[in-house]
Design a protein that fits this description.
Layout (H helix, E strand, L loop, with lengths): L11 H6 L4 H13 L1 H8 L13 E4 L6 E4 L4 E2 L1 H5 L4 H4 L3 E6 L6 E5 H17 L7 E5 L4 H13 L2 E4 L6 H11 L3 E5 L2 E3 L2 E3 L1 H11 L7 E5 L13 E3 H5 L11 E2 L3 E7 L7 E6 L1 H14 L7 E4 L6 H13 L3 E5 L10 H9 L3 E4 L1 H8 L4 H4 L8 E5 L5 H11 L6 E4 L10 E2 L14 E2 L5 E4 L10 E7 L9 E2 L3 H8 L7 E9 L5 E6 L3 E4 L2 E4 H9 L4 E11 L3 E10 L10 H11 L8 E4 L13 H8 L17 H12 L1
Parallel strand pairs: 4-17, 6-7, 6-8, 7-14, 8-11, 11-12, 16-17, 16-18, 18-19, 19-20, 31-32
Antiparallel strand pairs: 1-2, 3-13, 4-5, 9-10, 14-15, 15-25, 21-22, 23-24, 24-26, 26-27, 28-29, 30-31
Helix pairs in contact: 2-3, 6-7, 8-9, 11-12, 20-21
Bound molecules: 5'-O-[(S)-butoxy(hydroxy)phosphoryl]adenosine (WT7).
Length: 650
């Protein structure tokens, strides 16, 4: 059965109650493309402005007059939009239902409580000298305090840089050096299922590895209760600081284009980039997509399972839902603890109506059997979402039929750290669904597919997925490296934003993401640059060179496969996989450890020295008969040698 064969029409009940119907989508989409200024001026009223903007869109992707500005002369405060403005009517409404790692550890936080927590946190930051424009780094578990800290930064105009708690000390150190952060906010530890992760200890180690020594204060939240070493003059406990300040704090009036946050993400080359997002456009786009893509209504209980360490956590745990005054579940734990029914149990416990998660979680729970799902009820569910990697049709059907009892539209949302919010997605109630497809563009998004010559493909076809015009949520720069911003995203295809993803469009205009076209590998939704993993492996004193590729994996989506060349004279038996894995864990984080490592005598390279990853992929998959012509290689015979070693290793 071809993927196109199954189409799920908009269910009757959905189209009659959703914000956007098929007809409305068509009209609004046309307007958003033809008259972007009119469209966005109106839609930007989804948030409150201190000083209204006069200019809407001021953007160009061309080198001569490259600029991306939205609502530039307007002012606002992002935190006030997420918190203060809900107080007059909704102060008792629950903002967050915190579901801790241990079942039964539940906390409800109202908007009024959120307001006071955030103000207090902002005052603690101010007490330690944090000012508008300073960067504050967060290295936190998925607990309410992480969100208070983010919002506190936004309140006083500081720029937050959240580093996912799974990154190693070295990775954290590199990010601290890059942004010159003076303050780090962390916790004693994080709980993830049966494991406790010592976050503060990792921060301490990171501080011994930074080159620039910009960090002056580490503010630590007491969470697990595990003791940790506190260094005089540098380390303070948050709860002690919080006692000394007020729980009211005026917010800063910010320009729409003032930075809101940076978030580091992997590129195909070099060190991770600090993706910079600004205030007005980002919040407008996060709020609008959250409302329409999930068909959010006031009484929904919304749950996005992402960690705040990733962009999904920023846009769809924190900023979008809070701007809309939503009640969200936030979850500290993992989907399989205490068992594989946890997600579905939490959905029942809190009557979750909108659920947004990642394909890797869906596939991993699917592999545990249906009983974990069927023992729960899930009748509160109305809309299901997916993000991060392609949702393969088999997992789609399981999610749709079993989890969603064949009644909930699935929104498979395509976007990136760089895009700030969802760009391609079905809208529930407006579009029929095709399993495996991310459907159509959101309002204001003009996707195109380019062929190898950079020409636009019309109608059905496959090519490089680019975006033709700016949208408000787009990243504004690579922190402190504007040249890299232009070179990375606008130079490959002149005049377009290049996503580095490949995609197919069917004859009805539905998009199907075919995967990255650069050297980025998506392991369980974690974006990993092959260059970073190779650099970590090459740190081993006995290693001469390495090449890392991604191969399909039934649960993780992709898995890493490493080919390693040792230095002359190195003893093959003395270089253990375990050493290399440990090295990668230390340099990046455990999630970047390859599934397979094979020691090889050489790598397939062109005469100019470029590694032919395409050939390595075929070898890793045992498809040596598909390798084709190797005559352009500098040493064609190496292909057979590597194939034999790979076979022997399996
Ligand atoms: C890359 C971006 C956007 C938040 C999470 C990831 C892949 C993302 C989908 C999807 C197929 C997807 C793309 C993209 N991706 N969503 N629905 N279907 N692929 O953000 O870490 O910046 O990664 O994730 O390859 O380029 P990110």
């Amino acid at each position: 059965m071809s993927a196109e064969a199954s189409v799920y029409p908009v269910p009757e009940f959905a189209s009659s109650t959703t914000h956007i119907s098929s007809e409305q989508y068509k009209t609004m989409y046309q307007q958003s493309i033809k008259k972007p200024d009119v469209f966005w001026a109106k839609q930007a009223q989804i948030i409150d402005w201190v000083k209204p903007f006069k200019t809407v869109k001021d953007t160009s992707f061309k080198k001569e007059d490259f600029r991306i500005k939205w609502f530039a002369d307007g002012t606002l405060n992002v935190c006030a939009n997420c918190v203060d403005r809900h107080l007059p009517h909704n102060k008792d409404k629950i903002a967050f239902i915190f579901e801790g790692n241990e079942p039964g550890n539940v906390r409800h936080i109202s908007y009024e409580e959120l307001y006071h927590h955030v103000c207090r946190f902002a005052n603690v930051l101010k007490k330690h000298g944090v000012k508008k424009g300073n960067v504050v780094t967060l290295y936190m578990p998925m607990i309410p305090e992480a969100i208070y800290a983010m919002l506190a930064c936004a309140r006083i105009g500081a720029i937050h840089s959240v580093v996912f708690g799974g990154f190693s000390a070295s990775a954290l150190a590199g990010r601290l050096d890059d942004c010159g952060s003076k303050i780090v906010i962390t916790a004693d530890g994080a709980q993830r299922g049966p494991k406790t992760i010592p976050l503060k200890e990792t921060v301490d180690l990171a501080l011994t590895k930074t080159k620039k020594a910009t960090v002056q204060k580490v503010i630590t939240i007491k969470h697990t209760g595990a003791g940790c070493h506190m260094k005089e003059d540098q380390d303070v406990w948050y709860h002690e600081e919080a006692r000394q300040v007020q729980d009211e704090c005026a917010y800063e009036e910010m320009g729409a284009e003032d930075p809101l946050f940076i978030l580091y993400t992997s590129g195909s080359t070099g060190t991770p980039k600090g993706v910079l997002h600004t205030s007005g456009g980002y919040l407008t786009y996060a709020a609008l997509t959250h409302k329409y893509v999930f068909d959010y209504h006031e009484n929904d209980i919304y749950w996005c399972t992402a960690d705040v360490g990733w962009i999904t956590g920023h846009s769809y745990v924190v900023y979008g839902p809070l701007a809309n005054g939503a009640t969200s579940v936030i979850f500290e734990g993992v989907p399989t603890y205490p068992d594989a029914a946890r997600f579905w149990q939490v959905i029942d416990d809190h009557k979750v109506s909108i659920f947004y998660t990642a394909p890797t979680a869906i596939r991993s729970l699917m592999s545990k059997g249906d009983d974990y799902v069927t023992r729960t009820n899930r009748s509160s569910l109305r809309v299901l979402g997916s993000v991060g990697e392609p949702l393969n049709p088999e997992a789609w059907h399981w999610y749709y039929n079993l989890v969603g009892r064949s009644t909930c539209p699935i929104v498979d949302t395509w976007w990136q750290t760089e895009t700030g919010g969802i760009l391609l997605t079905p809208l529930p109630g407006a579009m029929s669904l095709k399993p495996g497809s991310v459907a159509r563009p959101f309002f204001g998004i003009q996707p195109a597919l380019l062929n190898k010559e950079g020409k636009e493909i019309r109608g059905a076809g496959t090519g490089s997925l680019v975006i033709k015009e700016s949208w408000p949520g787009q990243m504004r720069g690579v922190y402190q490296d504007q040249d890299r911003f232009f070179k990375t995203y606008f130079d490959t295809f002149k005049g377009y934003y290049s996503s580095e993803d490949g995609a197919r469009r069917d004859k009805e205009g539905y998009y199907w993401i075919t995967g990255r076209m650069d050297d980025i590998i998506n392991v369980s939704g974690h974006r990993i640059g092959t260059a970073e993993v190779e650099a970590a492996i090459n740190n081993h004193p006995q290693v001469a060179e390495s090449a890392v590729i991604g191969i399909p994996h039934p649960i993780k989506g992709e898995a890493l496969f490493a080919f390693v060349i040792l230095k002359m004279g190195a003893d093959v038996k003395a270089v253990f996989d375990a050493d290399l894995l440990q090295l990668i864990g230390r340099n990046i984080g455990s999630f970047a450890k390859p599934e397979t490592i094979v020691i090889v005598p050489g790598l397939p390279k062109t005469r100019s020295g470029k590694i032919m990853r395409r050939i390595l992929r075929k070898i890793a998959l045992g498809k040596t008969n598909e390798i084709g012509d190797t005559s352009t290689l500098s040493e064609p015979r190496i292909v057979n040698k590597i194939s034999e070693l790979v076979l022997a290793a399996q």
